[in-house]
Amino acid sequence: MVILFGMPLVQVLLFGFAITNEIRDAKVSVVDPTPDAVTHAIRNKLFASGFFIESEILNSQEEIAENFRKGESKMVIIFENNFSGKMERGEHPTVQLIADASDPNTASMLVNYANGIISEFNREQQATSGIPLIIAEPRMIYNPALKGVYMFVPGIITILLMLVSAMMTSISIAREKELGTMEVLLVSPLRPFNIIAGKVIPYVLLSFINAISILLLSYYVFGVPVKGSVLLLLAESILFIILALSLGIFISTIANNQQTAMMLSMFAMMLPTILLSGFIFPIENMPEVLQWLSLAMPPRWFILIIKSIMLKGSGITYFWKETLILLFMTSVFILASIRKFKIRLA
């Protein structure tokens, strides 16, 4: 009854609030080597629009790569040296818009919004003083060609590993309950940890082979680069696989049969994984309640990690917090599963 009546309501709410292509409060950093009245006016107009919020003031262009790797900003705005001075001399000063195109849709919209605001500023200034036009120069990094596959491959890897791994373990254990073989294990001298480890290890190997296959296809067929450490990427993938498997085991301790386990694995995880992970729809555009809820979604953190390694070439120093979050979630699900087994043994 919960699945029949509760799931449609949850789906409608998620689709209604989470699916939006609007941009709000995107973090933007600024490089303004010689601040003046004109650059301040442009900055005020950009940040008053509601599309952008000021993230950080950078001292030089050398800090831009570090800023993007840390995930501090979605876009960096660079004002030319002596901006107002060039306008007074009749020259055309430039504003460079550098966007993180690892999410090409968001990057395109951010650049278009900024271009529109700068064009409006140009029209206002020309109408009053006839000053020369300000030229906006967009530049995309990490994905200059704005290929959609750069966004979809990390997300698809995450969804497949999450759903397949969790579903395999939850259904296999629920099937043993239905057949009565789980009771044999529960009354045996085996400890709960031994039972869980015996169920997880084979699927870790199978899911790891699956992950390697997906990565090979993405590299050789779709041309998605792996700029960072391959060993680090595989290690993070194993961690996420273990997390997904431990979640599947936890679901199996709740479900009494295969059908319930499949429904929980498919519908309780698939939609939140797609909608609340930031895979397709930016999390910062969602209501605050859904933003807080997304913090409990393991795929959100793994997508950040895999994009950092594959597209940005970042090391563990840039996503150690996300790795610790995945480790914590894995420990919680494993301990909860063991506790459930202990309750059954008691």
Structure explained in plain terms:
The chain has 346 residues and is an alpha/beta fold. It is 64% helix and 9% strand. It folds into two domains: 22-141, abc type-2 transporter like domain (abc type-2 transporter like fold, 3-Layer(aba) Sandwich), CATH 3.40.1710.10; 147-345, no CATH class. It has helices spanning 2-18, 37-47, 64-69, 83-88, 104-128, 149-179, 181-186, 192-220, 230-254, 258-275, 288-294, 298-310, 320-345, and strands at residues 26-31, 52-58, 75-79, 94-100, 135-141. The longest helix is centred in the middle third of the chain and has 31 residues, at 149-179.
Task: Kindly report the average pLDDT value.
Answer: 82
- Supply the helix-strand structural class: alpha/beta
**Can you list the strand order of the major beta sheet?**
2-1-3-4-5
Order of H and E elements: HEHEHEHEHEHHHHHHHH
Poorly predicted parts: none
Compute the number of structural domains. Answer: 2
Task: State the helix count.
Answer: 13
Number of strands: 5
Helix content: 55-70%
Give the N-terminus to C-terminus distance in angstroms: 29 Å
Specify the biggest β-sheet. 5 strands, mixed
Rg, rounded, reads 25 Å
Q: What share of residues are in beta strands?
A: 5-15%
- The shape, in one word, is elongated
Main location: membrane
Membrane topology: Multi-pass membrane protein
Transmembrane segments: 149-173, 200-222, 228-251, 263-283, 318-338
Subcellular location: Cell membrane
